[in-house]
Design a protein that fits this description.
The protein is an alpha+beta fold and 426 residues long. The protein is built from nine helices and 14 strands. The chain starts with 5 loop residues before the first strand and ends in a 26-residue tail after the last helix.
Length: 426
């Protein structure tokens, strides 16, 4: 294989860490120090004049803060530099319209994380089939779950190597996310067929060929009963807490148990989405989806005092179901996986794909008889079938008719309106 067919690719691999109680405390301390460093940088940014908001001045202020504040010393120097670079990159993303302006990070609503910029500091080795070991600066040598072959030891070189990692804490504990750079063959154009996809709540993914991908509840009946019990317990304990009073340890423990069950459900949902999108990307060369504005679809129907909404409880349940299916995440996975396999993903306008008959092309009132049944009321047609299959066929038909949405040239994301940029951003 010639070098012209090889391309560099970067991806992340996340693995679960096995930490002792002392190692957890050390890692927590580093994460809190990194969050404090971010907040100090943000306070410095807001205080300094525009002309002095430079990387060099921020670096000098950060070094002085590490000398003046003792507990910031638990954060390794390279991790502190990573916080500085991430903060300045956040402002660049804001100026380019890719994100909102950075803000202060709260203690309880912020994802705890610590960056390890240099991959050589990790010194990764594989212990046996299930576990590997890595060096964490100022923590020690720790074990992590080995679920994917990594370019370490004799398998690592200038093109295939681990460039760094990031420690991330969620409700299930601490994890390590490796940044891997590898040299892979550039994929050939996928010669597979075209497929239209309709996403829904009852049937999560329906294909234009008549296939459907479904899943069970993310939690078992016992786990759902336990979650309901914990939520009721948390509500009772919260009622007895006075305004301004600190949350008790028991209530914190209940919140942790609730977060653990929800994290377990999310992990199972991610696993199902990865398996499903990988199967679709391997099989089809052209994948067509609807261009859905999910943020508008999950807006509350509560209304105002003058004009209250109707069916608010039903709309709330629908919003939770839509959010639980994570349609946007499914499309994101399909986007990069189809590219990895040489395929392409296209988006078509979403209006009326579920109301139009895929056989005659007419929109006749009353054709959507139920969530699952579509019967065309056009006297000259009368086609009947599954409603989700009908919508998926319409999605594919729109693409074949040339109605695919063309993204803005030179940009991968839509630029935000200028009004979201703060007046003192630059």
């Amino acid at each position: 294989m010639s070098q012209d067919t090889l391309v560099k690719r970067q991806f992340g691999h996340r693995a679960r860490l096995s930490l002792s109680r002392a190692e957890v405390l050390k890692t927590d301390s580093q994460a809190h120090a990194a969050r404090t460093m971010w907040n100090l940088l943000h306070a410095w940014w807001r205080m300094m004049p525009k002309g002095k908001r430079t990387l060099a001045n921020a670096d000098a202020a950060m070094r002085q803060a590490r000398e003046d504040i003792d507990f910031l010393a638990v954060l390794p120097a390279q991790a502190a530099q990573a916080v500085l670079k991430t903060y300045f990159q956040a402002w660049k993303n804001c100026w380019d319209g890719r994100a909102d302006a950075p803000n202060f990070k709260g203690r309880f609503r912020t994802v705890m994380s610590v960056d390890i910029p240099q991959g050589r500091d990790l010194n990764i080795t594989r212990v046996h089939r299930r576990w590997g070991m890595a060096n964490i600066p100022k923590v020690g040598r720790v074990r992590f779950r080995w679920t994917k072959d990594l370019p370490v030891g004799k398998h690592a070189n200038a093109e295939n190597r681990i460039t760094g990692a990031r420690l991330i804490k969620d409700a299930l504990g601490w994890h390590i996310a490796f940044r891997v750079q590898t040299l892979e063959a550039e994929p050939e154009p996928h010669q597979g067929p075209e497929v239209g996809i309709d996403v829904g709540v009852t049937v999560p993914i329906a294909l234009s060929g008549g296939e459907a991908y479904e899943h069970d509840e993310w939690l078992t009946e016992g786990e759902q009963a336990k979650l309901l019990h914990l939520e009721r317990r948390a509500a009772r304990r919260k009622q007895h807490r006075k305004s301004g009073e600190r949350t008790s340890r028991r209530l914190h423990h209940t919140y942790d148990q609730i977060a653990g069950l929800r994290a377990k459900a999310k992990r199972r949902a991610l696993d199902w989405q990865h398996q499903t999108t990988t199967a679709i990307a391997r099989r089809y060369g052209v994948v067509v989806v609807e261009a859905l504005t999910i943020t508008n679809m999950v807006k509350s129907a509560r209304g105002t005092i003058e004009e209250p909404g109707r069916n608010v409880a039903q709309k709330s349940g629908l919003n939770r179901s839509i959010s639980g299916e994570a349609w946007g995440r499914t499309v994101t996975m399909l986007t990069y996986k189809t590219a990895q396999h040489g395929g392409t993903l296209h988006k078509v306008p979403a209006p009326n794909t579920s109301r139009r008959c895929s056989t005659c092309g007419f929109i006749t009132p009353g054709s959507r008889e139920s969530q699952a049944v579509f019967v065309c009321k056009n006297p000259d047609c009368g086609w009947s079938g599954n409603a989700d299959w009908n919508a998926a066929r319409n999605v594919l038909h729109l693409y074949r008719m040339g109605h695919a949405l063309i993204p803005a040239a030179g940009r991968a994301v839509v630029r935000r309106a200028k009004r979201v940029k703060p007046a003192a951003a630059r």
